[in-house]
Design brief:
The complex is a heterodimer of chains A (about 160) and B (about 280). Chain A contains 5 helices and 8 strands. Chain A is an alpha/beta fold and about 160 residues long. Chain A has one domain: Rossmann fold, CATH 3.40.50.300. In chain A, strand 3 and strand 4 form a beta hairpin. Chain B has one domain: Rossmann fold. Chain B is built from 10 helices and 12 strands. In chain B, helix 2 crosses helix 10. In chain B, about 50% of the residues are buried. The chains are: A alpha/beta (about 160), B alpha/beta (about 280).
Chain lengths: ~160, ~280
């Protein structure tokens, strides 16, 4: 839909950070990548689609932030030293941080679709998308929702074993 | 009728232990495999290891069973036996190539898990260990739901000392409470590293918020033990050998064995209490 296109229209490049394996450092890398790109003068956003284990808010010290909606959708939380990195994570929607998000696939898919198209990112050079481990609902839905947009590609993270 | 089928198949299972985390890469599969090996060291016990990590099944490699196929017989799917008293089932055995990605949505994953439980001919089992993927989603809801046909002794929750792990593990603890799954206790993996040369201890994953110990205190769950990092563990997993057998003198082996014993005691005590009630 036009509204869906609008929110990602100002994003020049979308990079997915994937693994398959858990605990290899996807969220850590996503965070560092965003910070490094910001330092290089780029406009950066991070989308954390790990619904069960959202790690990015804590890594950027905004685990207690709340999110608001505006006319175009969700307003991201601005993080980093100069508060110029835009972050959206389901972590922000939880009433209590220890609440488990115990959802089956269809409900996760609905939220991811909303995350991807309903965040008012504005103009970004890079949108980094952090994913959970596996090759399941979150990954299928994220790629499907992002495909019509400027999906640059995926960075895969592993450990040596 | 389906519930009755599951009940019948699982009737011969005495104890069931789920290995959970919430966080990926903390050592669930490693721990599940070693728990299975540890329990099967008693040749009088029949142990079954079920790997329901459909996207990332690690158990075949860790148990040295890569490339094995599952056979069907009149009585159902036959598990792959590592020892006479240790049988394993994993989606990994159903893939034609280990690099095949299983890109399934929730409902299809649930279907396979149900099939595992319904169609695998485990026989008489003293301990059924279930290794799970990270998260709190379809696989976890389904396994708890399907296993309600039998009873689950409890869950062992694995973590590392860092807050980024603990924050996911707290959610897992809440998940267990939500679905009324008893928590046997928490295992803290990768808890310190002792250099084999200088014997100095380093915290590779510093417990910046007090580690599993503090979390367990705060949430009133049992800390079953802490396992230090040992490079041999990863090596053994990669080569499909039992770390406990390859490195019997390692401090990690001692920790694992203590933890396994505590789990055994919990299960046996639980059984005694149930028998008393009956």
């Amino acid at each position: 839909t036009p509204a869906e296109r609008a929110n990602l229209a100002g994003v020049r490049h979308i990079v997915l950070v994937l693994s398959g394996k858990g605990g290899v450092g996807k969220s850590t890398l996503s965070t560092e990548l965003a910070l490094a790109l910001r330092q290089a003068g780029k406009r950066v956003g991070i989308l954390d689609v790990d619904l069960c284990g959202p790690s990015i808010p804590r890594m950027l010290r905004v685990q207690d932030s709340a999110v608001h909606q505006c006319d175009s959708g969700w307003v991201p939380v601005f993080v980093g030293q100069d508060k110029a990195i835009a972050l959206m994570s389901i972590g922000f929607l939880l009433e209590r941080p220890d609440d488990a998000v115990v959802w089956r696939g269809p409900k996760k898919n609905a939220l991811i679709k909303q995350f991807v198209t309903d965040v008012a990112w504005g103009e970004l050079d890079f949108l980094i998308v952090d994913t959970p481990p596996g090759t399941s609902d979150e990954h299928i839905s994220t790629v499907e929702a992002l495909r019509p947009h400027q999906l640059l590609g995926a960075v895969l993270v592993t450990t040596p074993q | 009728a389906e519930a009755a089928e599951l009940r019948a198949r699982l009737r011969a299972v005495r104890h069931t232990v789920l290995v959970l985390s919430g966080k990926g890469g903390v050592g669930k599969s490693t721990f599940s495999a070693l728990l299975a090996h540890g329990l099967a060291a008693d040749e009088t016990k029949q142990v079954a290891l079920l790997d329901i990590d459909i996207c990332g099944p690690s158990i075949p490699k860790i148990m040295g069973l890569e490339g094995e196929q599952v056979h069907q017989s009149g009585s159902g799917w036959s598990p792959v036996y590592v020892e006479e008293n240790l049988g394993v089932m994993s989606v990994g055995f159903l893939l034609s190539s280990p690099d095949d990605a299983v890109i399934w949505r929730g409902p299809k994953k649930n279907g396979l898990i149900k099939q595992f439980l319904r169609d695998v001919d485990w026989g008489e089992v003293d301990y059924l260990i279930v290794d799970t993927p990270p998260g709190t989603s379809d696989e976890h809801l389904s396994i708890v739901q399907y296993l309600s046909a039998t009873h689950i002794d409890g869950a062992v929750i694995v973590t590392t000392p860092q807050e980024v792990s603990l924050q996911d593990v707290r959610k897992e603890i809440n998940f267990c409470r939500k679905v009324k799954l008893p928590i046997i206790g928490v295992v803290e993996n990768m808890s310190g590293f002792v250099c084999p040369k200088c014997k100095n201890e380093s915290q590779i994953f510093p417990p910046t918020t007090g580690g599993a110990e503090k979390m367990c205190q705060n949430l009133s769950v049992s800390l079953l033990g802490k396992v230090p990092l040992d490079p041999q563990i990863g090596k053994s997993c990669d080569s499909g050998q039992s770390f406990l057998a390859e490195a019997p003198e390692s401090p990690a082996t001692l920790s694992y064995r203590n933890i396994i014993q505590r789990i055994q005691e919990y299960c046996e005590q639980h059984h005694l209490q149930e028998e008393k009630i009956m």
